[in-house]
Amino acid sequence: MFSHAPVMINESIDSLMLNKSGAYLDCTFGLGGHSKEILKRLNSDGTLNSIDQDQTVIKYAKKIQDSRFKFQYSKFSEIGELFLNKKFDGILFDLGVSSLQLDDATRGFSFQKNGKLDMRMDQTNKVSALDWINNAKEKEIANIFYYLGEERKSRLFAKRIIEKRKNELIESTEELAEIAFAGKKYGNPKKHPATNIFRAIRIFINNELEEIKKALLASIDLLQDKGRLVVISFHSMEDRIVKNFLKGKLENIEFENSIKIIGKIIKPTQEEINLNPRSRSAVLRVGEKTNA
Ligand SMILES: C[S@@+](CC[C@H](N)C(=O)[O-])C[C@H]1O[C@@H](n2cnc3c(N)ncnc32)[C@H](O)[C@@H]1O
Q: pTM of this prediction?
């Protein structure tokens, strides 16, 4: 079984649920921590739709026997079409990977657990991390490491990957992590040298930044007047998109945003970080739709 502590559970749901009889959408069901809290607080006439692109969570969603709740296996970039004629009082995104994905070595997400490289949140997607790392051109690899991982040694790591590939496939998370480590000490002793490249590959394989942009844009039409948008991000690239969106700006995209920032950003308390170290980089932002 997988242990899982939902991040900023009270802060996020307090901001999301202004109407206990409302309709809510959880775009990142995961192990259902936030969804269950929404259901706990909902009146009998409220509803919750939850989605996730990971098929392995379907069995957890099925355990929730509640007529107010409906789960759909879907990508959140599809919410516009999925809920075409529906309006919500609140939409929640708890971005990133779940403990279910990270702690299962067979999903190939983590350099701390050796397993076959994969990193697909939706395992029906065609390209896995293994396919990509063994086929992409050196320049493309370096660019992904640099732009999506903010990795200073992007070119060096890409070069090492090409060297290693000449003799054998790079198949496991351990082999990939070793390419970044290469027996050397790295700038920050608290941070594994492969941290940035693993994150970059994960973001790339799951098309994460485009998914977020599409879903945020779709949420404008899906929210009722005074409906809330609540987003928990785990790294600066995600958070920048959310922040810019709430200010009405998205790179190369023209749009009219009627979702306005509410309050200041919220971060987990030290107590939560002590209990759940994975929450340490989380940032919560809240927006509210205004039709006025
Ligand atoms: C941090 S976890 C959510 C944890 C959840 N809030 C809980 O309390 O258990 C993020 C989840 O979002 C899902 N996810 C990430 N990107 C997605 C996307 N584009 N479409 C649908 N689900 C996505 C992942 O598969 C993962 O299960």
A: 0.95
